[in-house]
Write a structure and sequence with these properties.
Mean pLDDT: 90
Catalytic activity: ATP + H2O = ADP + phosphate + H(+)
Oligomer: single chain
GO cellular component, one term: chromosome
GO biological process, one term: regulatory ncRNA-mediated gene silencing
Number of domains: 5
Family: Belongs to the DNA2/NAM7 helicase family. SDE3 subfamily.
CATH class of the largest domain: Alpha Beta
CATH superfamily of the largest domain: P-loop containing nucleotide triphosphate hydrolases
CATH topology of the largest domain: Rossmann fold
Number of strands: 42
Distance between the termini: 29 Å
Subcellular location: Cytoplasm
Structural class: alpha/beta
CATH architecture of the largest domain: 3-Layer(aba) Sandwich
Length: 1017
């Protein structure tokens, strides 16, 4: 058998039509199967491969994709799907052109969806520009993938029957889904060895079970039944047994070693088993294979036919014109350039952004970042566009079904616009519909009178980005106010207090007695009341569960009580956070408090207790009271993006004596400026509250994020000298330290990692100790569990989002056990499930829609299943954190797996600090441990006896290097195992190439280890 280890392959042979360099010293006897991602050396093995079962299955799957457009690199023509491709390459014209170019006609197609000045690297799943292609294929990442692809070829060779020996089954050995009870007792499959050579003397020497993860214990054993002699007309049997107790996926390979006349050879079979519930796997399985979303065809239109906007769009009597603020052409050109993100970032920094970020350039600098973010938002909207959609007429509206609308993916609001073109037509018309109604699964649109769908007429649909929030931010950034240095770039002379206040400095009667008994909260309130004129923004640094909103509400009430002229604008990034502010201020009464909502919000979404504080016009749309009445309110509450409405309707700058922004760390700086700049004067005091160690603003554009838009205004200020401890503490900011939420075991790790061990456990013992001593715990005094699951992450249909059925099964079992526990009673709405991926959230909700502990969980008091972002500011008695990502493919353990929680310490911080009494984390430690923060957390749980499930595979006592390259170390170990296996397959190949069987290598999968499991004879 030929050498299968990866060599110095010629990229022109592998990825192009051939090499014309006579002096090329690289390996040419090589062939790449693009469909399966396998590199064959020698090339003749490719011909055996393409007649194999799994290759044919892969090609069939690819061919069923209607959007699969392929381009011939020889003929420069496009065809649709694999069947048409096969016809094309067999045709005379193609063969003639190949002959003229001096290349083989047997080429792989290119992806026609990739631009002509770029190409798709199948191995790396990346689109590479032609100018970067040469350096890309020589790069370390691509070389690693080539080694991976060569390994897959070696494995395919090792699976083939040879020397007259046939191993049954021909393909993978699949134990299927096994219940935990049966798996713990052990389940067995017989592997049969047959010989068709009566004269040959062959015997089985050994059978080894080897797991995909080299660090995992092997739950499979292979036992030879009999002497091991293999004779014609008589089967030799191996008992392959799987015995384990933990829910999850278990995969590896069976290596059967044979001896014939002193010569050794080997035949390999994959095996796999899943422990879990069959019904749950059936309910949650992948419904459609994942296919990357293709852009919906769209013609350039010259005729736009708009419908009528909804009445809500004219509900507010605006006095100030809102300009369009279109994105400058030079920014669009830079973002469209065929360059890497790093190159684009550097170009924008050098050529477009102001040279310095200061008081003069502040507005323009952030505007550029906002335009960059808008460009990305527009691109993201295209993933929701619909092809061949139909409309149904109900009254004056045409209704469109929008997949994902109930989950706000996409989010469609009243006043949004949707563009429509007739599918397959050639006319240049584009109908523009305005959204008038939003229901659970569809939207009602008003179109131009000429829009008249006939029968089942189909349309392509494009969702338009609502630019009004972006335009309001641009408007605020363009407003010029003098003497803003104290707010934008404060210096030490702008300190809020000349000296920190103490309990005797100011006599206050607290509206909330709890604040008066909390030294840090009381200090914050006293400081805000006593702020110097023209001071820098005062910051309430509120770690999780320390009561920052309570502190803000108390400060607002004290200001109102002490100054009859005080007027407050109180904002938050989200409607939910603004609602909480308004609810806690509701004792002021409807004559003093106004809760403003954007016109796009539906009135029935307003909490009942806030209805007295809103204003609706005669048509039932959100609006604002007359200007005279509006100016009389002492407190106005709204979101940051709506906070420019007082300016827009004519309230004068300086009307508000104080502007409060709660959860300011979650808002981008342009959002906060929308609340501050239009209404601020030198006399206006600004107070921010938030936590720069928790989630920041959600920014879609990598370019904008790296250039600074991902850093909140609050975080930027706290990096300045004015806010540095010890001089800044209690003079420019106050840090709240009493945590009223969590048990000490839950709080200890984030406290040490993020808050200098300053947080004090101050929660009610009856709440935070609720599960101490519970049977649910591994350590009865430690209410933190890490449940290690060897699972599998999946994607389906057009969604790039991941879900993990195995983790859902484990999480569902915890919920059922908790609800059934009468000694520790808990309501469903006291349990929260956090996940980093929308698909996992959706699947988990689907699982919980079944009966759990005798009661459905899809009622109003349901278990909350949501993302980390949706849980920020929230809490539950029990939190189950499902981390989702899992892989048995060790070569793929790189930065791509540093997603979700792993890549973001702030997301981790929010996730693990939502629990009051019990924190359960479910995840794959082999993935999570690649991140130093996660490895430290896993060590913390293990050393406190909170570990459950699969055993730990590293030394938890070893210090964690914060700069540890754990992924690179794992890759190196995996490559060493690959090399060993490939050498072994070469040495044990026998003297026959063998016949192709159904046991072809599985696409995209790799076995990367050579650790022997149970081997018995």
């Amino acid at each position: 058998m030929a050498q299968l280890a990866p060599g110095n392959y010629c990229p022109n042979v592998l990825y192009s039509t051939g090499c014309t360099d006579a002096a090329c010293g690289l390996v040419h006897d090589v062939k790449f199967c693009q469909a399966c991602g396998i590199i064959f050396h020698p090339a003749k093995l490719y011909n055996q491969h393409i007649s194999g079962k799994k290759h044919q299955e892969r090609v069939t799957i690819t061919a069923t994709s209607s959007s699969n457009r392929l381009r011939c690199p020889i003929c420069a023509v496009q065809v649709s799907g694999r069947p048409n491709w096969q016809q094309h390459v067999a045709g005379g014209k193609h063969r003639s052109r190949a002959s003229q170019q001096g290349v083989s006609p047997a080429v792989e197609p290119e992806d026609a969806n990739v631009l002509r000045n770029a190409r798709h690297c199948t191995l790396c799943s990346r689109i590479i520009s032609f100018s970067s292609w040469s350096s890309h294929v020589r790069g370390a990442e691509h070389q690693r993938q080539e080694q991976h692809a060569s390994f897959r070829a070696a494995f395919e060779q090792a699976e083939r029957n040879r020397n007259g020996i046939k191993v049954m089954p021909d393909g993978d050995i699949d134990f299927g889904i096994v219940t935990a009870t049966n798996a713990s007792q052990g389940v067995t499959i017989m592997v049969v060895v047959q010989s068709d050579n009566p004269s040959s003397q062959i015997r089985v020497v050994s059978a080894s079970c080897i797991m995909k993860n080299p660090n995992s214990a092997c739950p499979f054993t292979a036992v030879l039944d009999g002497s091991g002699e293999v004779r014609a007309a008589r089967d030799t049997r191996l008992k392959l047994t799987f015995r384990h107790q933990n829910v999850g996926r278990y995969e590896g390979r069976l290596e059967i070693h044979f001896q014939r006349s002193g010569q050794n050879f080997m035949i390999v079979r994959r095996f796999k088993a899943t422990i879990g519930d069959t019904a749950d796997h059936e309910l949650l399985k992948v419904m459609k294979p994942y296919v990357k979303h293709r852009r919906v065809p769209w013609r350039r239109a010259s005729q736009f036919l708009p419908g009528s906007p909804p009445p809500a769009m004219n509900a507010v009597p605006w006095k100030k014109k809102l300009e369009m603020y279109p994105t400058p052409e030079n920014i669009i050109a830079a973002l469209r350039a065929r360059a890497s993100p790093l190159q684009i970032i550097e170009f924008i920094r050098q050529s477009i952004l102001p040279a310095t970020f200061n008081e003069t350039s502040h507005g323009l600098y952030l505007q550029v970042l906002l335009w960059i973010e808008e460009y990305r938002m527009e691109q993201d909207m295209r993933s929701y566009d619909l092809a061949d959609a139909t409309f149904k007429k109900e009254g004056r509206y045409h209704f469109l079904d929008v997949p994902g609308l109930a989950e706000k993916r996409p989010s469609v609001l009243i006043g949004d616009r949707i563009e429509v073109q007739t599918s397959g037509a050639t006319d240049d018309r584009c109908f523009e519909g305005w959204v008038h109604l939003v229901r659970r699964d569809d939207v009602g649109l008003d179109f131009h009178p000429s829009f008249k769908p006939i029968g089942s007429q189909r349309y392509n649909v494009r969702f338009q980005l609502n630019r009004i929030p972006l335009r309001r931010q641009h408007q605020a950034l363009r407003i010029y106010r003098s003497k803003l240095a104290r707010l934008l770039f404060p210096q030490p002379q702008h300190v809020g207090l000349t000296a920190s206040v103490s309990a005797t400095d100011l006599s206050l009667v607290y509206f909330d007695a709890r604040v008066g008994n909390n030294a840090a909260q009381a200090t914050a309130v006293r400081s805000i009341v006593e702020l110097r004129k023209r001071a820098a923004p005062f910051i309430i640094f509120g770690p999780p569960g320390t009561g920052k909103t309570v502190t803000i509400v108390e400060a607002i009430r004290q200001l109102l009580a002490r100054n009859s002229q005080a007027r407050i604008l109180a904002c938050a990034p989200s409607n939910s956070a603004a609602d909480i502010l308004a609810q806690r201020l509701s004792k002021l009464g409807a004559d003093q408090l106004f809760r403003h909502y954007a016109v796009s919000r539906k009135p029935d979404e307003v909490p009942n207790d806030l209805r007295p504080f809103i204003f609706l016009n005669t048509q039932g749309n959100f609006s604002v009271p007359p200007l005279e009445r509006l100016s009389q309110f002492r407190v106005i509450v709204c979101t940051c993006l709506s906070a420019s409405f007082p300016y827009g309707v004519g309230l004068r700058a300086g009307h508000f004596s104080h502007i409060f922004v709660d959860e300011a760390g979650q808002a981008s700086e342009p959002e906060v400026m929308t609340a501050i700049k239009p209404m601020v004067l030198p006399s206006t005091q600004v107070i921010l509250s938030g936590d720069p160690r928790q989630l920041g603003p959600i920014i879609r554009s990598t370019v904008a994020r790296e250039l600074g838009l991902g850093r909140s205004y609050l975080e930027r200020l706290m990096e300045r000298e004015l806010y540095q401890p010890p001089t800044g503490r209690n003079r420019s900011y106050v840090k709240l330290v009493k945590n009223f939420r969590s048990h000490g075991a839950i709080l200890a790790f984030p406290n040490q990692q993020f808050y200098d061990d300053e947080l004090q456990v101050s929660g009610s013992p009856s709440v935070i100790n609720a599960y101490v001593g519970s049977r649910h715990l591994e350590n009865l005094k430690f209410p933190v569990i890490f449940h290690a699951v060897s699972g599998k992450d999946d994607k389906e249909a057009n969604s790039p989002s991941y879900f993990n059925v195995d983790e859902i099964i484990v999480g569902k079992k915890y919920i059922a056990d908790l609800l059934a526990d009468r000694r520790h009673p808990i309501k469903k709405n006291e349990i929260g499930v956090i996940a980093p991926y929308h698909a996992h959230v959706r699947k988990f909700r689907k699982a919980l829609s079944q009966k759990v502990a005798g009661a459905s969980v899809d009622e109003d008091d349901a278990v909350k299943v949501a993302s980390v972002e949706e849980f920020q500011g929230d809490e539950r008695k029990v939190i189950i954190l499902s981390t989702v990502r899992s892989s048995r493919d060790l070569l793929e353990y790189d930065a791509r797996y540093a997603l979700g929680f792993v890549a973001n310490p702030r997301r981790f911080n929010v996730a693990v600090t939502r629990a009051q009494a019990l924190l359960i984390v479910i995840g794959d430690p082999s993935v999570l441990s690649l991140d130093p923060l996660w490895r430290a957390f896993l060590n913390y749980v293990y050393l406190n006896d909170g570990w459950r499930g699969e055993p730990i595979t590293w030394d938890p006592h070893a210090p964690v290097d914060d700069n540890g390259a754990f992924a690179q170390q794992l890759q190196q170990n995996s490559l060493a195992h690959i090399t060993t296996f490939m050498q072994q397959t070469q040495e044990l190949a026998g003297d026959e190439e063998g016949e192709v069987t159904g046991a072809d290598v599985e696409e995209g999968a790799a076995n990367t280890e050579l650790v022997h499991g149970g081997v018995q004879e």
